[in-house]
Structure formats: C-alpha cells, structure tokens
Amino acid sequence: LPSLRCTAFTNYRSQVQTINHCIVDLATPPSGQLMPFNMYVTLSHSCGRHGIRLLHDFDERLFTQHPSEHLCQEDAWLEDLDRQTRKKWEEFKGQSE
After folding, report:
1. How far is residue 55's CA from residue 84's CA, in Å, rounded to a whole number?
2. Which ranges in the chain belong to alpha helices (H)?
3. Where are the domains of the chain?
4. Taking the complete model, does pTM exceed 0.90, yes or no?
5. Long-range contacts of range 36-39, CB-CB < 8 Å, 24 or more positions apart?
6. N or C: which end of the chain has fewer CB within 10 A?
C-alpha cells in the first residue's frame, strides 16, 4: 500500500502557517460549538481554495450566523479606541505646529 505523510493541526495550532494542501474537518467538535472565527482560521491557512478538501458535510449555518455579542462589543470598543487615538494625534500635531 502506498503511504502519504500527513500532519494534523487544530485551528489554534495552524495559526501563522500556510498549508499547501489540506483536508478540513468542519464538524461540530465534541466539546461544543464551532464559531465563525474558528472557520475563518481553519480555511484561511490554505494556499487557496483549490488546495482545500472537506472531510465531510458540515452545518452551513456556520457561515451565516452572526458573531457573538461579546465580539460585537469588542469591535465597538476597538473602534472607540481608534477614534480616541486619532483625536489625540490630531491634538498633538496641532500643538507641535
């Protein structure tokens, strides 16, 4: 029988890596729910859509559900920090001129 070398990664472990060809398991893990962010991380480490193969069917709602409320709050907080930083920078530039 021919053999093929392969490596298994969790979506956390695959961060900062680019994988030429991958087989992706998008099933709900035994530990609970899979989040859209997990899906993004899992699928974005391939070199492109032609190098991805899905292990089996998956719940399509994973790609259409809204992010968690916590993530929405975090985004709003980061946008507020961005506005504050820009405002302080403009004030600083005005004082130095």
Report:
1. 46
2. 36-44, 69-96
3. 1-65, 66-97
4. no
5. 36/62, 36/63, 36/65, 36/67, 37/67, 37/71, 38/11, 39/63
6. N
**Mean pLDDT across the chain:** 81
Bridge-based pairing state of the strands 52-54 and 22-24 = parallel
Identify which has the larger pLDDT, 80 or 12: 80
Distance CA(15)–CA(33), nearest Å, equals 20
**40 touches 71 (CB < 8 A):** no
32-68 confidence digits (pLDDT tens) = 777 777 777 778 878 888 888 888 888 787 778 776 7
